[in-house]
Amino acid sequence: MPGMGGEEVEREINRLYPELPILLISGFYRSGDLCEGISGIIRKPFNREELFRAITAVLNSE
Q1: How far, in Å, CA of 35 to CA of 25, rounded?
Q2: pLDDT exceeds cutoff 70 at 29
Q3: How far is CA 54 from CA 8, 35, 46, in A?
Q4: Inside any domain, residue 12
Q5: Phi and psi of 37, rounded to 5°?
Q6: Which DSSP category does 28 fall into?
Q7: Would 23 be classed as within a structural domain?
Q8: Does the pLDDT value for residue 1 go beyond 70?
Q9: Distance CA 13, CA 23 (A)
């Protein structure tokens, strides 16, 4: 989303679709930075299998 940071995007998604799970994809994540509305995280770089496992974990946690 041009002009918005990750936390701003997360807040807007939570405002519009509060039940929608959010998977954070980041190359800069530090432990403890996870926003309240984030359902899961995957760190860059990742492969297809890691992405599949992260998406599955988020969907199964709902």
Answers
A1: 13
A2: no
A3: 22, 17, 10
A4: yes
A5: -85, 0
A6: S
A7: yes
A8: no
A9: 12
Q: pLDDT-derived band of residue 28, with 50, 70 and 90 as boundaries?
A: confident
Host domain of residue 40: 6-60
Give the separation between CA 3 and CA 38, rounded to whole angstroms: 20
Measured on CA atoms in the order 40, 46, 44, 20, is the torsion positive or negative?
negative
pLDDT tens, residue by residue, 32-56: 555 677 888 888 999 999 999 999 9
Q: How many domains does the chain have?
A: 1
Q: Which two tokens stand for residue 15?
A: 């405002």
Distance of CA 21 to the CA centre of its chain: 8
Q: What is the pTM for the complete model shown?
A: 0.72
- Whether 1 is covered by a domain: the verdict is no
Residue 37 in domain: yes
